[in-house]
Amino acid sequence: MSAQPKSLCWRDYPIPTASIDYQKAFAAETLAPDKIVVNGNVVDLGITEKSLEGILGLASTVAEDWQQRTDQQQCEYLLELLRKHPNSMHLYELGALKLKRMSGQFRVSEWQIPDVGTLRAFFHKPSAAQSEASYLYHLALLPTSLDKVVRKKDRGYVLIRRGPPEIRWDVRTNRISISGRADGG
């Protein structure tokens, strides 16, 4: 358990991050949801790429092919993701992943969801012989104007982007729901 002396891993990330403005993020930033529901089909963390393709009804493209990484290299990879998305949502999501000290093989695939945006799924498998499992999602919604993002009354902190498709984000549970896609999916 020897971290490199100059490494930022294995302690709090000393990267300046901003508190997330949920409405602004929902209008035009990359989200890191824990769960996504597409027309009633649930996309949880921990599923395989094939399962995700079946739920979405779309083929994936490889954004980053399988790479072997040590837990130190994976921590540095997560740190780089935080640099690209320096907000409190990513700080907490990536910080929790860092503590898992994952090593093995890693891959990133993505799907272009019509009228919605791009879903990136980050996969991990401890060894080549084991099945992969998703450990992080990035959802980059197509940008919309801030006035098209509304807060649902009397429902805690649920944000809505009117559609089609209609997209809801329950900030408390970090769950995105997409319904009524134009392609019928």
Overall morphology = globular
The chain-level mean pLDDT equals 90
Structural class: alpha+beta
Query: Which consecutive residue ranges, at least 5 long each, have pLDDT under 50?
Result: 1-5
Protein architecture, described:
With 185 residues, the chain is α+β, with helices and mostly antiparallel strands. The chain contains four helices and eleven strands, in the order αβββαβααβββββββ. It has helices spanning 22-28, 49-56, 71-84, 88-98, and strands spanning 30-31, 35-38, 41-44, 61-69, 104-113, 117-125, 133-141, 149-151, 158-161, 166-170, 175-179. The strands form two sheets. Strands 3-2-11-10-9-8 form a six-stranded mixed β-sheet, covered by helices on one side. The chain has a five-stranded antiparallel β-sheet with strand order 1-7-6-5-4. It is globular and about 45 Å long. The relative contact order is 0.22.
Features:
185 residues, alpha+beta, six-stranded mixed sheet, five-stranded antiparallel sheet, 11 strands, globular, disordered N terminus
Write the layout of secondary structure elements.
Elements: H1 22-28, E1 30-31, E2 35-38, E3 41-44, H2 49-56, E4 61-69, H3 71-84, H4 88-98, E5 104-113, E6 117-125, E7 133-141, E8 149-151, E9 158-161, E10 166-170, E11 175-179
Parallel strand pairs: 2-11
Antiparallel strand pairs: 1-7, 2-3, 4-5, 5-6, 6-7, 8-9, 9-10, 10-11
Helix pairs in contact: 3-4
